[in-house]
Design brief:
This protein is mostly helical. The chain is built from 4 helices and no strands. Helix 2 runs antiparallel to helix 3 (82-107), helix 2 runs parallel beside helix 4 and helix 3 packs antiparallel against helix 4 (115-146).
Length: 154
C-alpha cells in the first residue's frame, strides 16, 4: 500500500505544479487581453497584438500538450468516469482551440492596423473574449473533476 502511495505521488505530484504554472500563463493571457482594446491607433498596436497571439497560442498548447495529457493519465489511473467527461468536453474544447488559432492566423503577423482593421479587431476581440470564457470554464471543470477530486488520494 505504501508503495502504491509513493508511486502515485511520483506520478501525480508534479501535476499541481504544472497546473499552477499554467494558471500563471492564464493570468498573463488575461492581462494582455484586457490591455488590447485600450490601445489606440496612435500607439503601435502590432507588437502588442503579436505578443498577445504568442501568449494565446502558448497557453492553448500548454493545455493540450501538458495539463490535459496529465489529467487524462490521472483519470485513466483512477478509472472513476473522468475519461468519459473528458471525451464529452473535448469537442467543445477543440472548438475553442479552432477559434483561438483562427484569431492567431488573422492577427499574429499584422504589421500595422488600418481603421477598418481596428474596427474588425474590436469585433474579433469581443468574440475571442466569449470563447476564452467558455474555454476557461471547460478547463476548470476538467481540472476539478480529473485532478482536484483525487487530490487527497495523491
Amino acid at each position: 500500500m505504501l508503495e502504491k502511495c509513493l508511486d502515485a505521488r511520483e506520478r501525480w505530484g508534479g501535476v499541481s505544479e504544472l497546473i499552477d504554472r499554467w494558471l500563471h500563463e492564464r493570468q498573463d493571457l488575461l492581462s494582455r487581453f484586457i490591455g488590447l482594446p485600450q490601445l489606440t491607433l496612435d500607439k503601435d498596436v502590432a507588437p502588442s497584438l503579436q505578443g498577445f497571439c504568442e501568449v494565446l497560442v502558448d497557453y492553448v498548447s500548454s493545455w493540450h500538450f501538458g495539463v490535459y495529457e496529465h489529467l487524462l493519465a490521472e483519470a485513466d489511473s483512477f478509472n472513476d468516469g473522468g475519461i468519459e467527461l473528458a471525451r464529452e468536453l473535448d469537442p467543445k474544447l477543440q472548438a475553442t482551440t479552432d477559434e483561438v488559432l483562427s484569431f492567431n492566423d488573422q492577427f499574429s503577423e499584422v504589421d500595422s492596423l488600418t481603421l477598418q482593421d481596428a474596427s474588425h479587431l474590436g469585433e474579433r476581440l469581443s468574440r475571442l473574449g466569449e470563447v476564452l470564457a467558455e474555454r476557461f470554464e471547460l478547463e476548470d471543470n476538467l481540472i476539478e473533476r480529473l485532478h482536484t477530486a483525487h487530490k487527497d488520494r495523491l
